[in-house]
Automatic annotation (TrEMBL):
Domain of life: Bacteria
SUPFAM superfamilies on file: Aminopeptidase/glucanase lid domain, Zn-dependent exopeptidases
EC number: 3.4.11.-
Keyword Transmembrane helix part of the UniProt annotation: no
Molecular functions per Gene Ontology: aminopeptidase activity; metallopeptidase activity; zinc ion binding
GO cellular component: cytoplasm
Top-level EC class as recorded in UniProt: hydrolase
Origin organism lineage: Bacteria, Pseudomonadati, Pseudomonadota, Gammaproteobacteria, Oceanospirillales
Full protein name: M18 family aminopeptidase
Recorded family membership: Belongs to the peptidase M18 family.
């Protein structure tokens, strides 16, 4: 196995991460690549006319996407890949404007399980979607990305808090509001109007609503003397979205295959476009109705003949905190994808799906690792168990090892990006799943 990483693929990854500060931007980037590759966009509100051998995609809420390819013959099974488009962060409150000590600040709410400390003293941009009303009364949804440093959450000097390095608790309500402008009367609404004109040429519009969040504008970078590492915001889980998309675009399209990237995993997946919602189930019903057996029984047969690989990053062995891992299950960065196992079904892996993935990695000439959390520590979860529960498809949870999960800047291995992509391509090309 080569010690070098796939430079072209890592470059595409960094571009994708840079262009995707929010789930809406990530979904748009994925849709653009799918269309460039010949995938046809579908709308959920229209009748679908699906043809064997063709490739399609559909979005929901503009923040979740499902792409699929149909075999030339009758659809009897699907090789499914799953990931999620959202990442923990700081989202604006609806009435975000606040003033203190002569500064305009914007009030935030915490989205997901954020590691708060790394957010201090970062150059922050702002991105998301904004809904505006035009002069003629019609509403429009537009994406906004202020990709320059417009805000910061300044630290308190150690001279004013001598115990800060002893583990000070961070209060997100009172201590995490970024400063934006030195002003006693500026309003967020006025800033939004100016940014909308700057980015979209929109004049005389009223801001009706928005979903916006801060993000670190430092671009992704390759780190290490041999560039062994890629450092970026939102590796969890845009790295998996990217790898899944790369695999879909590189496979030979001979088999039935599907990629789903859901929003809202970091907050429980309970939404219309989340993994616990009906998005994937709705698409599977429509596929079965048109190119499957068109009966309820054939839908069950399709699902049970399929397999889902849920991709979400894994905790890599940290050189400064090795005691946080089980000594036999500490995945190493750049040592291949990780099979995630939990006896309490926090991960959906079982021996059947695990064995199949190991065989896929063998065929792809890719190393594979296992992760089990320490028995005296809690375990996170993924869309894997949720999808398995909601849809019933046999599922395995895998991921690439990373450090600093849920930080404003995370770290993964450059060689691992290619390892998992190659394994997923083999999986998507397999004529028989079992």
């Amino acid at each position: 196995m080569s010690e070098a990483f796939n430079a072209d693929r890592v470059t595409r990854l960094c571009e994708f991460l840079h262009q995707s500060p929010t789930p809406w931007h990530a979904t748009r980037c994925m849709a653009e690549r799918l269309e460039q590759a010949g995938f046809v966009r579908l709308e959920e509100t229209t009748n679908w006319q699906l043809k064997p051998g063709k490739r399609y995609y559909v979005t929901r809420n503009d923040s979740s996407v499902i792409a699929f390819q149909l075999p030339a013959e009758k659809l009897t099974s699907l090789r499914m890949l799953g990931a999620h488009t959202d990442s923990p962060g700081l989202r604006l409150k609806p009435n975000a404007t606040q003033h203190a000590a002569g500064w305009l600040q914007l009030g935030v709410q915490v989205y997901g399980g954020v590691l708060l400390a790394p957010w201090f003293d970062r150059d922050l941009g702002l991105a998301g979607r904004v809904h505006v009303r035009h002069a003629d009364g019609h509403l429009e949804s537009v994406l906004l990305n202020i990709d320059r440093p417009i805000a910061m959450v300044p630290s308190l000097a150690i001279h004013l808090d001598r115990e800060v390095n002893a583990g000070r608790v961070i209060n997100p309500q009172t201590q995490m509001s970024p400063v934006v402008m030195q002003s006693d009367n500026a309003e967020l609404s006025d800033l939004l109007v100016g940014w909308l004109e700057e980015q979209h040429g929109l004049c005389a519009v009223e801001v009706v609503d928005f979903e916006l969040g801060f993000y670190d504008v430092q671009p992704p970078s390759l780190v290490g003397l041999r560039q062994e590492l890629v450092a970026s915001a939102r590796l969890d889980n845009l790295l998996s979205c990217f790898v899944g998309l790369e695999a879909m675009l590189e496979c030979d399209a001979s088999q039935g295959a599907l990629l789903v990237a859901n929003d809202h995993e970091e907050v429980g997946s309970t939404s219309a476009c989340g993994a616990q919602g009906p998005f994937l189930g709705d698409v599977l019903k429509r596929l079965n109705a048109q190119v499957g057996g068109a009966t309820e029984e054939s839908l069950i047969q399709l699902i049970q003949s399929s397999l889902m690989i849920s991709c979400d990053n894994a905790h890599a062995l940290h050189p400064n905190f090795q005691d946080k891992h089980d000594e036999h299950h500490g995945p190493a960065i750049n040592a291949g994808p990780v099979i995630k196992v939990n006896a309490s079904q926090r991960y959906a892996t079982n021996s059947v799906t695990g064995a199949l993935f190991r065989d896929v990695c063998r065929e792809a000439d890719v190393p594979v690792q296992s992760f089990v959390t320490r028995s005296d520590m809690g375990c996170g979860s993924t869309i894997g168990p949720i999808t398995a529960t909601e849809v019933g498809v046999p599922t395995i949870d895998v991921g690439l090892p990373q450090w600093a999960m849920h930080s404003v800047r995370e770290t993964a291995g450059t060689r691992d990006v290619d390892y998992l992509t190659r394994a997923l391509v083999v999986f998507l090309n397999r004529p028989v799943l079992r």
